[in-house]
Amino acid sequence: MTRPPVSRHDSRAGGSARPFPSLDGRVLAPVADQAPGQVGTRTRFTYHERSGEIWAEYAGGDVVRGHLVGTRESDRLDFRYVQLKQDGTTSSGHCVSTVVELPDGRVRLEETWRWESQPGSGTSVVEEVVEQVTSHAPD
Q: Which of 15, 51, 72, 97 has the fewest CB atoms below 10 angstroms from its CB?
């Protein structure tokens, strides 16, 4: 089965087409904590992207290890996720996200998700983390 080519251009800005930012190699984190036992501000997602495919590994907070895999078309991600929590339980679900480029060049994902392994659904926002390097002046 052949997939149609993925559109990589954004025509929102006054009709001028520009490519959406790639997620490949970017590290993102939730901007707020979810319910206990779910991803939170200490969780880090490392994204990969190639030819319309996306995947990520994540961990931190109540999540020991998690993986997501799916597709990207333009500014829309559609993926499934599975995670192992600190208490030894696993959970999985489905998420659709919109990729937004922030004014400072970082990326935000606006997400709508639903658990498939347990009751529950919601929305969340994750944003690219830019690590601050602090240097210390000699004494």
A: 15
